[in-house]
Design a protein that fits this description.
The chain is an alpha+beta fold. The chain is built from 11 helices and 14 strands. The radius of gyration is 54 Å and the shape is rod-shaped.
């Protein structure tokens, strides 16, 4: 039970009920005060000229500052006959009470403030004004007042309190009874109707909110396909859309993490395999040198040492490529772009690979235009790209093959294209060529001497090429036909 009433719906309902009670109480208080003021103002408006009639009809007279007792008796009999609920006071011109007609003679003030009286006389009773109640100091009452003149001199005032204490008590009981009837019927019906209507609205609002909570719970429990249906508007719609976007991002991140984890495992396996091969060769030949040191000829010893040296060079290259690719993927390497002539760099790369190409009877043909404008890129990183692509082309070209390096100028940059006449790449392998540690051993691509190309490669060259061009906001394109050759191309922006 406590769980039910601790829900958001019931919390809102209880809060709403409390708010309605407070508003209802304030409404009753304001209504009582307003009704009371209404009756007072109505009473004063109806009897605003009562004091003036007293002065005209009774004509109270003063003698040596004292009120004429005969006049006072006439006032008392006249007023009590007209309205026994009023109180009549005769004041001198300073506001001091000279005499009065009041029930039970309970008068506690000796003087009445003249400010409200003068204001009443000036406005002729058209403005609601309250004055002192001589029987209840501190209480304000509606009244009627009129000046008393003798020989064109102001000698005093007639001050009529329009609601005696007894009248107030009767009126208070009447107002209380009226408010009770109002609260017991109209206000009670209004509050109940508003409360029920509010509960219905809150139910519709919290129903969708509860649906959101259920979806979030199921998502938390592992159902990552859960999504919040977007049915509402405003903040709840924003909440639903935000959660759905967050869920999609989390799901994509999980997939990326899984892919990264699979890649990491594959990387560890490939690195372990590639490291094991040269290390095993080095270990085997060093062990042979130690075991057969006295029986080996100088030629055999030299051959073994050269094999060890080649294996260490391959190991060194593998480690270097691995570190370089890791830095590129971690974005630790940022290009330092500068203007340079790409044609000069191509000529330099061609010259450096000329000796290696001649060993396999391969011809390198640079086809460049010396009028090609400068490009804007990191010259050392682009040199690394060209070097890796040239190594790859030589590695997979047949004896007597041709490697062409050419440039083409466009409005937005210069394209560099390296084409070989090697074995080419099977169509099914094309999407994976730039993946780190693409397993060439499963591919039909072999080197000219019949050995697998992967045996002479770290497997990271093309992956490094792709990453370098990515940080230059460029892409590497590949076209290849089996037994026809391959072509790699990329475009660099012109120097502005």
């Amino acid at each position: 039970m406590s769980k039910v009433f601790s829900s958001l719906y019931w919390k809102i309902a209880v809060t709403f009920l409390a708010l309605l009670v407070v508003i209802g109480g304030a409404y009753v208080f304001i209504t009582i005060d307003t009704v009371k003021m209404y009756f007072q103002e109505k009473n004063q408006r109806l009897h605003a000229d009562l004091a003036e009639h007293v002065v005209k009809e009774v004509k109270p007279s003063f003698s040596n500052g004292q009120v004429n007792e005969a006049s006072m008796d006439m006032i008392m009999h006249s007023m009590m006959a007209i309205n026994p609920s009023i109180e009549v006071y005769l004041l001198d011109n300073s506001g001091r009470i000279l005499n009065y007609v009041a029930p039970y003679k309970k008068v506690k003030l000796e003087q009445v403030a003249l400010g409200p009286i003068n204001q009443f006389i000036e406005t002729k009773g058209q403005k609601f004004i309250t004055g002192d109640d001589p029987r209840n100091p501190g209480i304000r009452k509606e009244f009627s007042a009129a000046p008393i003149w003798e020989n064109d001199q102001l000698v005093g005032y007639v001050y009529v309190v329009l609601a005696s204490e007894e009248y107030d008590m009767a009126a208070q009981d009447l107002i209380g009874d009226y408010i009770m009837r109002l609260g017991g019927k109209t206000m009670l019906v209004t509050l109940v109707t508003t409360f029920l209507l509010g509960l219905t609205i809150f139910w519709f609002i919290t129903r969708y909110l509860n649906q959101i909570i259920e979806v979030v719970k199921r998502f938390k429990e592992g159902n990552l396909e859960e999504r919040i249906p977007v049915k509402s508007s405003g903040e709840l719609k924003v909440l639903a859309l935000t959660f759905n976007e967050m869920a999609e991002k989390i799901l994509n991140n999980i997939e990326d993490i899984k892919a990264t984890e699979n890649l990491r495992r594959e990387l560890v396996a490939n690195v372990s395999h590639d490291l094991r091969t040269p290390i095993s060769i080095i270990h085997g030949y060093v062990e042979t040198l130690l075991m057969k040191e006295s029986s080996l000829t100088d030629q055999e010893r030299t051959q073994y040492l050269n094999t060890v040296l080649e294996s260490t060079e391959r190991l060194k290259k593998l480690v270097a490529d691995l570190f370089e690719l890791s830095k590129l993927e971690a974005k630790e390497i940022q290009p330092h772009k500068e203007p340079f002539f790409i044609t000069e760099l191509i000529q330099d790369i061609s010259h450096k690979h000329k000796l290696m190409a001649q060993e396999k009877n391969i011809t390198i043909v640079p086809v460049v235009d010396n009028n090609t404008p400068m490009v804007n890129a990191d010259i050392s990183l682009i040199e690394r790209v060209l070097q890796n692509l040239m190594d790859n082309a030589i590695k997979f070209s047949n004896d007597g093959g041709i490697i062409t390096i050419e440039t083409h100028q466009f409005d937005d940059g210069v394209e560099v294209k390296i084409t070989d006449t090697g074995k080419g790449i099977p169509e099914e392998d094309l999407p994976y060529v730039f993946d780190r540690y693409f397993n060439f051993s499963k591919s039909s691509v072999v080197a000219e001497d019949g050995k697998e190309a992967a045996k002479t490669s770290s497997g990271l060259g093309l992956a490094i090429v792709k990453k370098i061009l990515e940080i230059h906001d460029a892409t590497i394109k590949l076209t290849s036909r089996l037994n026809k050759g391959s072509a790699f191309s990329f475009r660099l922006p012109l120097h502005q």
